[in-house]
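mind reviewing this stuff:

——
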Amino acid sequence: MITKFTVGNRDGSSAWDVSELTNNVKWVTDLNFAAGTLTFDVIKTDELFYPKSGDLVEFEWDGFKVFYGYVFKVGYSQDKKFSITAYDKLRYFKNQDSLVWPVSTVSQRFETVAKMAEVSYKVVNSSDYKLPAEVADGKTYFDMLKTAIDATQKATQQMFYLFANYDTVELRKAPYNQLELIVGDQSLMTGFSFDKSIEDAANIVRIIRKDQEESQSVASTSTDEASAEKTSEDPEKTSFSYTDSKGSNVGQWGKLQTTENAKDKANDAQIKQRADELLVEKNRETYSLRLNAIGDLSLVAGNSVHLQISDLHDVGFVIESAAILKATHNFGPNYNCELEMKVNEPWLENSSSS
C-alpha cells in the first residue's frame, strides 16, 4: 500500500499529501538510457492543489522509497482529474553539451556529467578500462555515456548502466543484484510471451573498399552545383573490392548480407578481421521474453531473476535466468508488474525447436 505520496515545492517548504486522491500509479525503470518515470492521476478537491512544472514528487510503497523526481507534464480533464508525469534525476542526463574527453574511464566520465547535470550521484561499480580521448560535440550526457559504456562492454564484456536509486543517480554493473526470486509457473508469474527473430540478422558480411582514380570534386561558383558534382561519381574511374565473411547457416536462412565501408588505412588482414568480428555480432537470432508478474519492488531494471516456465520448456526452450531490461510497476489493490527480459541464447531441448 502507499505509505507516502507527496507533491510539493522543490525546496521542500510545502507539500500536498495526495496518497488518498491518486490512482493509476505506474513506475517504469529502463536500462536503455532513459529516466525513470512515475505517472499518476490526482482527483481535484476543494484544496488548492495545482501541480507546477518542477514540483518535487516523493513516492513510497510499504515503507520502501520508490521514486524521487520532478513534475514535467501536467494534464487536466473535464472529470476534474490531473494526469501527471514525473521523471527521476536521470532526466537531466538529456541535457546537451560539447566536451573534449581525455583518456578516462566510464566511471570518471559518469562523475563528470553527473556534476554538470547538478544531481547527487554515486559510483557503485567502477571500471579500470581506459577509453581513448574523443570529442563529443552537441551530444546529450546520455549519448556521451552510451558511447563510453558500449566501448567498455565491447572491450571488457562488462555491462554498465545508470539507475536512479531514489534521490541518487548511480553507475552500476549489470546484473546489479542476482535475485534469489524464481519467476515462473508456481511463483509470481501470471503470463508470458516469447519470440525469436532473424529480421535484423546477417550471415554474410561484406567489407567494401572504394577505389577512385582521382577526386570527383569540381570547382564551381554555384554551391548547389558544387554539391552535386561532389556527390556524383564517374563509373569509368570508380571500382570496388570486396572482403567477405560467411556464416554456415546460409542454406537454412538464405542469404542475409550486410556491408560496411573499409577504413581508409586498413590493410587486407585488418579488413578480414573486421568482417569476421561483424559476422559474429550479426549472425544470430534475437530473443524477446516478456513476463507479467505479481508486483515485487525488487523486480527493477538491472536485476536478474531465476526462471521456471514449463510451457517454454515443453517446446524446447529452457531459459534458466535472465536480467530485467525494463520494468513497469502498476500500483494499486492488484499490484502487478510487466517485465522485458534480456535473453541470451536459450538452451534447446531438441534441435527441431531451433
About this structure: The first helix runs from residue 106 to 117. The chain has four domains: 2-89, 95-174, 178-198+285-353, 204-282. Residues 215-223, 350-354 have pLDDT under 50 and may be disordered.
